[in-house]
Amino acid sequence: MKYMLALLVVICASKQAWALDMVPLEACTLMDDVMEVKGRAWRVDSGYGGCGTPYQDLPSVGPIKTNVAFYANGNGETVRQLKIVLNVNDTSTEKHSIETFKHYCGKLFAKLVKNTWSSEVSMGFDKAIISGERVAWNSDGFSFSIHKRIWQTGKGHEYQFLVE
Q: What UniProt keywords apply to this chain's record, in alphabetical order (predicted)?
């Protein structure tokens, strides 16, 4: 029981220590650079702010294309979350789409921590993709996670790469 309590304290304390704190211009510029496309400018509405790229269609055969997009979210003055989302609408091209998604996630990771991700992080990423389970880690002052979310419609799923 003492071990569980100590672990809970460490997890809660580390959540505070790893909080993303970025100005909107920096996040939106980073987004444009990572995705190699000009995104929408930072907008604030009812105290919440955000910017994002348009969906980028990836090669797929279905009528609704698999796509990827980048988002930055926060309040009016500070970005608290960066997110790359892969929307899988065509499972026949999912493997290629995941490689593209992983490329963008690795590029964002490298720009934030000023280093490429290790083979251990890469394996964790792959494990999350294969198992569908959430995988999280901290690196250089940032909290990273990846997880899969199956849509209620049953017509697809998404992978989310989060930086907080």
A: Signal
